[in-house]
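Reopening this ticket.

The earlier resolution said the output was attached, but the attachment link was broken on my side. Pasting everything inline this time so it's all in one place.
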Amino acid sequence: MMIMNALLENRKDDPIETDALFSSLKLGSLTLRNRFAVAPMTRVSATAEGVPTQRMADYYASFADGGFGLVITEGLYTDKAFSQGYLFQPGLIDPTHESGWRPIIQRVRGQGAVMIAQLMHAGALSQGNPHRGDTRGPSAVRPKGRQMAFYRGAGDYPLPSAMSFAEICEAVAGFVQAACLAQAAGFDGVEIHGANGYLLDQFLSQGVNHRDDRYGGDLEGRLRLIVEVVLAVRAAVGPSFIVGLRISQGKVNDFLYKWEGEGEAVAIFEQLGRLPIDYLHTTEFEAWRPAFDAGESLAALAKRHVSVPVLANGSLHDLDQAVGLVERKEADFISLGRGALAYPDRPRRIAAHMRLDPFDPGVLSPIADLQNADRYGRATLSC
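Inline output:
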């Protein structure tokens, strides 16, 4: 009786109708069991060599067991040159990394979820790379903002050197090699990280990319590196392996950055829509807000101009907004960051109409790693 009373107390009054979030979705050659995805979240919890740990295996498996249909890894660095962004970031650059991910993938897939590796090159935002003592970007422009303390950074970002053509080719090759290792390890696909101020987004961004060669200048030039990475990865992994792309306006170091209005957004999405990708992942702080001063959200703009499913990210632990985006067909599925960290079993809780408390940022402070999350959890339980 006490258990029943506790369950009833946890149930919400007047539950939101959430059927739209629990329908299946075709993604490439696979089918997701629902519209819930775990967003990529940097947790800096690998070994110093970038190998995933047992604690990471438990972390990722908890989302699959909790009902998420898609689990996307945190950004995995792609080479031993300039791609690593953070100390203790996991990588996917050699057989040791590949073998480390295999049992994690097996656990996630064994619990009914699809698992995708996000491939990331930090570029000028690197603040912890044991392979290099300096950084590279499209141009010698110091990034705005300061390094992120909860990823063990401090002070201003270093001034990067402009990438040579050979270094650009090396970066593309790193994405390709990492994608092939992801396929060999058993991932269902890869997501190319073209968002949030990291290397591919740096090339896209005016004010950061000052190049006067084929990788700079007009929009076509600034998009060229994204296009080349996607085409090279697709050629390497074949047609049946999922390839997604993440895109954004705002950046981890320049939160308020915007493209040049809706016209440029449409031009970007039209070009991305011609690429051989299986989904497009848009991210904003609040995914349902207008992308510019008025008008449609970034996800809705993408949805109108690409033919593949659109994954929306940005404060969509707000259930009303998540349901609304999908029901209005402004996005096909949603990814959750804070919402997933607060409740790894969030889909199951939503299905049961259970109360969902707000995310407590203390789980990410002072370091956003899993060890801190465990200490925080123990402290909370002891109160």
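Reporter confirms the inline version is readable. Residues 303 and 313 are 13 Å apart (CA to CA). Confidence is low (pLDDT under 50) at residues 1-9.
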